[in-house]
Amino acid sequence: MAKRKIKCPFCDTYFIDMDAFVNHLDKKHHDDIPQGQTAWQYAYFLHTGKDHGNCVMCKSVTGWNEATHKYHRFCKNPKCKEEYTEMFRKRMIGKYGKTTLLNDPEQQKKMLANRKISGEYTWRDGVHKTRYTGSYELEFLKFLDCDMMYDPEDVMAPSPHTYNYQFEGKTHFYIPDFFIPSLNLEVEIKDGGDNPNNHWKIQEVDKKKERAKDLVMQSNKKLFNYIKVTNKDHDKFLRYLMVAKQRFLEEDKSPIFMP
After folding, report:
1. Which of 2, 69, 138, 216 has a Cα at 20 to 30 A from 177?
2. CA 149, CA 147: separation in Å to the nearest integer?
């Protein structure tokens, strides 16, 4: 299938790559970019007609996220995130988006308690802090912060969404490590499951449980995008962003699933 082309609105140049189009805007038509907007933000407006976002909770105007090239899905009021998290903490998401209300508050506490918090990461701005559960999660946060200059407002840890899956005839609960609202993206961080200190039978059980989790996430891909970052392969997140850019260019709204 031929790639969709973008025509510059100020000249007769065509592009099949969003980054190339944005660079062209910035270099050749910088004076046409509205004051206060980045080249990417203006390109987004030219492509979608949208010059702002809206909070999914209170509907107030949200700002631009230059790292993801999308508008934030939450406003600056922390209560909106808290209310969103509380709303989803009362639900479990099963296969194909089927939700079940969590009527037992003790069960909810147990699920959250099972996520052993190793520490709290302080972002470079010295203000924002994000909890993490292990060294691999910490390294991912450092990658977002120091390598990508990511906006900490766009990272929720753990994900506010709880999933359930079946394994060996029992129902298990699963909460992804991170949720990135502007990308509608669930992020799972893994060590690869090949810890030499674990018996091979334990490793095999872990792999089967991972496959069961993947199946549930795949069945829910119409609700959320999903990526699994294994063994600190942070380049996979960059690959995800490249796929997302191309989908945006082609106006392809199909979900992205990268286990």
Report:
1. 69
2. 6
Residue 35's Cβ-count burial label (10 Å; 0-12, 13-18, 19+) is: exposed
- Domain span at residue 223 reads 105-250
pTM: 0.83
CB atoms within 10 A of CB 143: 17
Q: Is residue 12 exposed (0-12), middle (13-18) or buried (19+ Cβ within 10 Å)?
A: exposed
Query: Residue 141 is inside which H or E element, if any?
Result: helix 135-142
Category of 17 on φ-ψ map: left (φ > 0), alpha (ψ -120 to 50) or beta: beta
Q: List the structure tokens of 70.
A: 């999308």
Q: Torsion angle of alpha carbons 104, 107, 111, 116, nearest 10°?
A: 120
Q: Is residue 60 part of a domain?
A: no
Kindly state whether residue 76 falls inside one of the protein's structural domains.
no
